[in-house]
Amino acid sequence: MLKPIGFIVSLLLIIVIFLRMPQENLGLSSFATKSDILGSPSSAERSLNILTAVGIVIYFVIAIQLNLIS
User: Fold this and answer.
1) Quick one: angle between helices 28-35 and 2-19, nearest 10?
2) Spatial CB neighbours of 22, under 8 Å, sequence gap ≥ 6
3) Full-model pTM
4) pLDDT tens digits along 32-67
5) Number of compact structural domains in the chain
């Protein structure tokens, strides 16, 4: 049960990291800013910071649980 959740959290963290690319780089950050998907830049940055922190904590908890099981 933990392995699929860990996999989903890993993918979520990868997506969040791509969205947090610096503004001068072209890519997903440019797309997210121009298309206004994430709202205003300051609220988007705050939301991504919170999402990243929560994702990292969940990932570590799952990794520790999986290591204790095996």
Assistant:
1) 80
2) 29
3) 0.66
4) 555 455 556 677 778 878 888 998 999 999 999 989
5) 1
